[in-house]
Amino acid sequence: MPRLHTACTFWTVEDQAGKAIVIVDDEMSFTDLLGRLLGEHFQCPILTFSNPVTALETIPLLDIGMLVTDYYMPHLNGIELIRGAIARSAIAPPCVLITGHALDEDSDIARMACFKGILAKPFRWQQLASLIEQHWPADAPSPLRPGAVSLHR
Q: Where do the Response regulatory domain residues begin and end (predicted)?
């Protein structure tokens, strides 16, 4: 089940209001920390998954403003997850790949319109927040919390 990083304790897909940031990484402690840090900056729902297969099954039910996924995960890597999300969604969400492994930005995934960048681990959460702000769908309300300072330069 996805974890929602807001004041809400229990969450179902029906509870989602507005576009969400979806984070997928098999390291649950990493997704929890990243979700909490981003949750202090953004007011939109932030959903974290530690299982990429569960994430892929849930993606068609979500209104995604940004998909952030690790590359190297068991059962399904980040590129397979992004391709699966595109195949299951009417509109491909903007995507960022995070990885501790060297990847070629000239790969097939980098040429996809929804692909917005690769962040090499370790990275500062502000770098990811800036990418989210920069590529947030124009037709959606700003994800920033009231009074939050934009990190996009």
A: 20-136
